[in-house]
Amino acid sequence: MNLMGMMSKITFSSAWGPRIRTAIDALKLDLPWIERLDMVNDLAPLAPELAVQLEKHEQKRANQFKGNAKIPYIKPEDDPILNDFKREMLFHRQAQAAVREGIKRLHDLGITTKRPDDYFAEMAKTDDHMQKKKMGKMLAKQTRVQREMDKKDMLDQLKKFRKGKLKNLDFLEDSKAAAGQKKKTDAKRKARDKKFGFGGKKKGLKRNTRESSGNIEKSGKNFRKPGKAGPPPQYF
């Protein structure tokens, strides 16, 4: 039989404090940092691509509140979705700062963090190949960030023009010129592909069409006109 009752408050004697500290000191191992690898550091600087992504995320949330009156407005600092995204960025920046400081400490202790060039065990792909891949990813990231920044600048210029701070739309001419240059380059690429390969449609080239079915050559001994039967077979 279970009985409901009030739980009495648990009190601890102050005499347990020194004993607990003694037990903790007995369990604690006085190891060097290379064995512990623990660090307390600040956040790493915010990367440009993360700043652009955060701004796009905030703008997207603002547009959702602006275009839908059924959703109650929430301040950016109180928005749980934005807070989750910022929290993930804090984890990323914290880990980045820990890696940077940890590598520096390892170098100060004389511990190498990269294998030498003449290391015996070689990867399946050469270092030159991986360096090319790394440079390609870096250039692609820089191009993506630059494109986002250009788009942001154009939107800012449009806002200034709408407010009357700008008298002309010269900045649109620059963007049109860049787009025209890209279109010209794409046309050259298509012409070369058509001449040397990789041009035009590839799928379904051998399928019959309405035109190909109607252009059958009418020749040969077995061809018969519709409506006329051939000679009867002869049996011997």
Write the layout of secondary structure elements.
Layout: H1 16-27, H2 33-36, H3 48-67, H4 80-108, H5 127-162, H6 170-196, H7 210-214
Helix pairs in contact: 3-4
Describe the model:
The longest helix has 36 residues. 56% of the residues lie in helices and 0% in strands. Among the domains are: 76 residues, no CATH class; 61 residues. Helix 3 packs antiparallel against helix 4. It has 236 residues and is an all-alpha fold. Belongs to the EBP2 family. It is found in: Nucleus, Nucleolus. Pfam families: Ebp2. Required for the processing of the 27S pre-rRNA. One of its GO terms (biological process) is rRNA processing.
The level of helicity is 55-70%
Which structural category fits the helices and strands?
mainly alpha
Globular, elongated, flat, extended or rod-shaped: what is the shape?
extended
The DSSP helix count reads: 7
Rg estimate, integer Å? 37 Å
Strand content: under 5%
Largest sheet: none
- Per DSSP E runs of 2 or more residues, the count of β-strands stands at 0
| SSE order | HHHHHHH
Query: Averaging pLDDT over every residue, what do you get?
Result: 76
- Low-pLDDT stretches are none
